[in-house]
Amino acid sequence: MPARLVALLLLAVVAGGALWSDRPPAPVPASAPATEFSAERALPIVADLARAPHPVGSPAAARVRDDVVGRLRALGLAPRTETSVVGGTAVTNLVATLPGSAPTGTVVLAAHTDSVPAGPGAADDTASVAAILETVRALRAGPPLRDDVEVLLTDGEEAGLLGARAWVRDGLPAARPTVVLNHEARGVAGPSLVFRTSPGNAGLLRAIAAVPHPRGDSSLDAVFRLLPHDTDLSAVLAAGRPGIDSAFIERPSEYHTAGDTPAALSAASVQSQGSTMLALARTLGDADLRPLDPAASGLPAQPDEVWFRLLGVLVTYPQAWALPIAVAAALVLVGAVVLARRRGLLRLRDVVTATATATGALLAAAGLGAALGAAAGPDAGPFSRGLLPYEVADVALAVVVVLAWALALRRRPGATTTAGAAALLAAIGVATAVVVPGASFLFALPALGLGLGLTVAVLRPRAALTALAVGTVPVAALLLPYAPRVFLVDGAAHGLAAAAFALAGLPLVAVAAGGRV
Ligand SMILES: [Zn+2]
Q: Cβ(95)–Cβ(150) under 8 Å?
């Protein structure tokens, strides 16, 4: 088997492994130890609560609340209902406290009890309400935590975060350190992603690191801000208080429809949501919460950190490093190109051509994907059920564009293709480091890997294929597994998805060509 095929297969294994490790865990059976979170114990609660739509103000919403009050009492808590008027609408939140042994503050487990009028809201947000009940049960089965744990089940989220706004106004103590863990769904399947952390997230990331296989990364925050969505956590963040937002977002075609039923809800998603919730509650519940909530404690603000998983390891570094890393990636690449030129392995003009045509290829993939989405109509959007043919078409578009680029450059020295793809990534890495630093790792680290790989390839031409393949590992581990996620984004999803696959595909050309330099 040619060495280039082996190298491409290994990169495919790296990308596949990254995708596989993001899958939600298998549901834990009801026979599991009492201290564990079991989706099988939580799912019957969802089936009971999500029988019918229960929007804010409806008799069905009151029935759901009464049912939950009974379940909280059965867990040994003393729930309180807090009714208030927000924006002319009466909302009733449910609050219950599990006292800590020596509290430094409060960890809040939050979800909303109301659904949209269109559907029963099994995933959004009954699954999270049930997960909170199962988490409280598991917490009570274990040794008591140091901090208070407060259950906050809000009303009127779908009508504009009404219950959360009332709680922030009336129920959030100004001087008591409080961390809010909010739980949502924007689909009925997939892993629970930690998609948003409050500014100054360094302390929160120590807790996220304690979650077994935490899913999500700091780029999702930026993506979320581009979408027309909001969660209860927004009310908390607007008050300058800390928190973490988690949600599962796959199969969004059922989101806010009559199809969001207990039958459609993925048990693995409930397990993922609950396992993450329980791990965060235990870690934060035993932590000193004062440094995490500077607004309440008066302690200095914590730094912002970039975070993601690379080859199974949680990587975090200060956000202030994002731009230096992106600039370093660009400088390493410039160094590699200068070195290659001195050795007569490429011409500068060719590198400029390769970079310009790679940019053109990326734009062509985006344009063709967007045109495909427009031609297919709204039924081809990410909320449609029959998405698969369009997903295949988006990937095929990206492959065609990347192949066309490779064919156009085939007569030029191989090092130019790597330099061209890496220059495009490095430029995007620097731009994102300035505008959305939490997302720049997706581009800057692949650019850095390619720059280092190219340097070694130029110095040791006999090992060029190995060097370029190893240098392409960040592309396979970060960028390629990220591309399918773009299918879940609304709006220009097809153009963005085709562009994401093309951007990940361009650097593979040098490896596919056998690493000739
Ligand atoms: Zn919701």
A: yes
**Distance from the alpha carbon of residue 484 to the mean position of ligand 1, in angstroms:** 23
Residue 386 pLDDT exceeds 80 = no
Gap between the Cα atoms of 188 and 247, Å rounded: 10
Where along the chain do its domains lie? 3-19+318-512, 32-304
For residue 232, report the distance from its CA to the centre of ligand 1, in Å. 8
Distances from the Cα of 112 to the Cαs of 122, 125, 130, 186, 274, in angstroms? 12, 6, 11, 13, 15
> Nearest CA to 130 among 304, 297, 274?
274
Q: How far is the CA of 185 from the centre of ligand 1 (A)?
A: 6
Centroid of ligand 1 to alpha carbon of 503 (angstroms): 33
Tell me the CA distances in angstroms from 108 to 96, 99, 300, one per residue in order. Answer: 10, 12, 22
83 exposed, middle or buried (CB, 10 Å; 0-12, 13-18, 19+)?
Answer: exposed
Instruction: Tell me the CA–centroid distance for residue 218 and ligand 1, in Å.
Output: 21
Interval between CA 256 and ligand 1 midpoint (Å): 9
* Residues 187-219 pLDDT 10s: 999 999 999 999 999 999 999 999 988 999 999
CA angle 229, 230, 232 (to 5 degrees): 155
Between the CA of 155 and the centroid of ligand 1 the distance, in Å, is 11
pLDDT in tens, 115-161: 999 999 999 999 999 999 999 999 999 999 999 999 999 999 999 99
Distance between CA 127 and CA 263 in Å, rounded?
12
- What are the strands, taking DSSP E only, across 339-450? none
pLDDT tens digits, one per residue of 428-487: 999 999 999 999 999 999 999 999 999 999 999 999 999 999 999 999 999 999 988 887
CA of 433 to the centre of ligand 1 (A): 31
Helix, strand, or coil (residue 384): coil
What confidence tier does 163 reach under pLDDT thresholds 50, 70, 90?
A: very high
Q: Could you say which DSSP state residue 168 is in?
A: H
Residue 17 CA to ligand 1 centre (angstroms): 31
CA–centroid distance, 111 to ligand 1, in Å, is 8
Cα 54 to averaged position of ligand 1 atoms, centre (Å): 12
Q: What is the pLDDT of residues 43-72, one digit of tens each?
A: 999 999 999 999 999 999 999 999 999 999
Q: How far does the centroid of ligand 1 lie from the alpha carbon of residue 219, in Å?
A: 21
Q: Please tell me the distance from the alpha carbon of residue 136 to that of residue 271, in angstroms, as a whole number.
A: 14
CATH 3.40.630.10 describes domain 32-304: yes
Question: How far away, in angstroms, is 259 Cα from ligand 1 center?
Answer: 15
- Computed on alpha carbons and rounded to an integer, the radius of gyration of the chain in Å comes to 25
**Ligand 1 centroid distance, CA of 152 (Å):** 14
Report CA(194)–ligand 1 centroid distance (Å): 15
- CA–centroid distance, 113 to ligand 1, in Å, is 9
Alpha-carbon distance of 412 to 216, in angstroms, equals 40
